[in-house]
Amino acid sequence: MLDAMRKQADSILLKGLFLIIVLVFIFWGVGTVGTDRMEIAAKVNDEIITRRQFDRAYQNLANLYREVGGPSGGPPAEFLRSQAITQLISNELMLQEAGNLGLEVDESELRDSIAAMPNFQNNGHFDKDAYIEVLRQNGLKPNDFEDLQRDQLLSQKLQTIVARGAQVSPLEVKDRFRHDNERVSLKFVRVPAAAFVAQVEVTDEERKQFYDANQESFREPERVRAVVVEFSPAAFAAAVTPTDADVQAAYDGNLAQYQKPEEVRARHILIKVAPDASEADKAKARTRLEAVLAKAKAGDDFAALAKANSEDSSAANGGDLGTFGRGVMTPPFEVAAFALAPGAVSEIIETPFGLHIIKVEEKTAARQEPLDAVRASIVESLQTQQARAAALNAVETAHERVLDGEPLEKVAADLNLTVQTPPPFGANEPVGALGPRPELAKEAFGTDAGEVAEIVTEPSGYSIVKVVERLPTGVPPLEQVRDKVDVGVRAKTAAALARTRAEGLLATLKEKKDLVALAKQEGLTVEESPQIGRAGAYVPNLGNAAALKDAAFALTSEAPVAPVVFDVNGDAVVAVLAERMPADESRFASEQAALTERLQAQAEAATVRVFLEQLKSQAKIEYGQGFIAAGGGTPLS
Prior knowledge:
Blueprint: H1 2-8, H2 21-27, E1 40-44, E2 47-50, H3 51-69, H4 77-100, H5 107-115, E3 121-122, E4 125-126, H6 128-137, H7 142-163, H8 170-181, E5 183-191, H9 194-197, H10 204-213, E6 223-231, H11 244-252, E7 259-260, E8 263-272, H12 279-297, H13 302-309, E9 320-325, H14 331-339, E10 349-351, E11 354-364, E12 367-368, H15 371-403, H16 408-414, E13 419-420, E14 425-426, H17 438-445, E15 456-458, E16 461-471, H18 482-512, H19 515-522, E17 527-532, E18 538-539, E19 543-544, H20 546-552, E20 566-568, E21 571-581, H21 588-618, E22 621-623, H22 628-631, E23 634-635
Parallel strand pairs: 22-23
Antiparallel strand pairs: 1-2, 1-22, 3-4, 5-17, 5-21, 6-13, 6-14, 6-16, 7-12, 8-9, 8-11, 10-11, 15-16, 18-19, 20-21
């Protein structure tokens, strides 16, 4: 494949191909200029990947996952290490092969790609100052970044060449459409485990066996015991009173906020016309509305005409749409309404909803609300701001006093604030009666026992937290979790009893094939799950049941009984095929283009992956000390 690629490189037209987003994030910060640690992370055909490159790639990956999944949403460090070194090696291989093929990136391509990046633009145009500043913030000089970007474009070119070898045939698209859009309906009975729970007697031996086999499920998380003093702005609100000067300044500084735009109050009469209606239907609707318009212009009561003729929900109110400003109604309607004088009736207006006639009842010009009209809201806003500022000032002073050695209890008493003593809490657990407080918990878990955390800032106010004790994670003794263990034993045993009964039902069903009769005989209810698609694990009216869904699409009218009992949320389920529905072929034409594009993108990505694996198999890749596990390859010789 590689030899053929090299021979055909000059004859292949290049086109753009998106890189995987993780690659983009990694190689933005890979530069090695100024490296003072040339320890080797890997060598690819004698080209060195430095530890500095690896460190930056690893950190960028970690930051990406943190942004996507939050502080606890990232994968393990070993996974990130493996991803970082693998992507660096893949990138180096692609660049080397691009060089073998004689591919290049000229200055105009490089310039245009950088100018198109949104981070470097101001009002849609490239801004050199923004460019320099963004690079500075990321620790890069223009020359370094441009080298990185040139490499990225070169890699894109090679991927484009490779991807052109992937082709999806019309038959493959049609087959995939049929596969994805086929539906099945099931009938099923469930034997609920709950029906057997009361029968289960838990013995000491069963209890111990379950506890020993499932100890990790009883593990208590690390917790902290802390005392908390809250500085709520509400506690300081009574001590602040905005002055007239404050109110005037707030009003003068936000005049635009107190401007009222031009508004109209209007009625309308709508005759609905579908966007794809025939010309004959449109003409019929227009003729009907023209007759109504003639009456309106002759002086007939517009509200009465709307009640009698309009097909809009406002008809009951005489077509009254209330008062509205610009940007609310669809553009043709808005233009007509704001062009009318009070009391005037429009000509027929066409919008996506149909045909309208409009009558403007009132029109109010744009205006500035006087201070007296908005004084109350300004005072309320200022009081909230000033109370929060007072709370912040108080908490900062109190925090300094506690850090200087004063007991938190005394500081709180001086301010008439309460010291809260919630029970020990975990990083992701509610803080006792204080409820979910993620920021508070985060600060507490970042603080040693006996120490005071940084001031906690939350929408509700501020808090001082002193960690009294850190309680390590651990599995409690059996006697402490006896009740939980018993619940587990009963649930497991009840589920086994439910399955045993269901398996007996299934054996009978395989012989008699009549689920309805069998369910009636056994006192069970037949339920139905209609229109099951292949995507996901969810089965309607049953829940997540991936194994059942997979089995459902293997059932036929000749063999309609699902071959095994399925465990769904602890219950035992026996199912049969009710109906198999082929894809709706009439939808294929409208969906063909999008499906072809998706399958082509998948095929291209798979082709690039195979190509990259071929490059790896032919390359000499060696790993530096500490990177063999991550990369899975040969150590440096």
